[in-house]
């Protein structure tokens, strides 16, 4: 089965998620996930990166990691170094068990010019 996960977008309004034992608004769940990642997750990630000999991520305020971006450079295969900003995005994705069926509007055929004549004939013969 080819699962097609789509990002749940906070901008769509108050999306609510039920995990059978707990129900959350997406906005609150996403905010809690960001807070957790930034408070404990980055510290743990830095510990792991240090342990692997890779150094540490730069220390910035949380708002930079989430919104403004952190100064960085990226090297893509076959390209030169490119300066810019990196930021962390926390997303939750959803894949429905059954695809949503789109309602197809009922298409009315245009009236024929002969419909009026048919109605008049029917009215006369009744």
UniProtKB/TrEMBL annotation:
Region called Disordered, residue ranges: 102-126
Compositionally biased residues, Basic and acidic residues: 105-126
InterPro entries linked: KGK
A Pfam family that the UniProt record links to this protein: KGK
Name of the protein described by the UniProt record: KGK domain-containing protein
């Amino acid at each position: 089965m080819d699962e097609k996960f789509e990002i749940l977008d906070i901008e769509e309004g108050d999306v609510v998620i039920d995990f059978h034992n707990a129900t959350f608004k997406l906005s609150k769940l996403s905010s809690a996930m960001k807070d957790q990642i930034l408070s404990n997750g980055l510290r743990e990630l830095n510990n792991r990166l240090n342990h692997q000999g890779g150094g540490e991520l730069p220390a910035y305020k949380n708002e930079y990691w989430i919104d403004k971006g952190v100064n960085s450079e990226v090297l893509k295969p076959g390209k030169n170094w490119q300066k810019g900003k990196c930021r962390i995005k926390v997303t939750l994705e959803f894949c429905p068990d059954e695809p949503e069926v789109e309602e197809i509007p009922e298409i009315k055929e245009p009236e024929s010019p002969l419909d009026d004549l048919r109605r008049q004939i029917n009215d006369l013969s009744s």
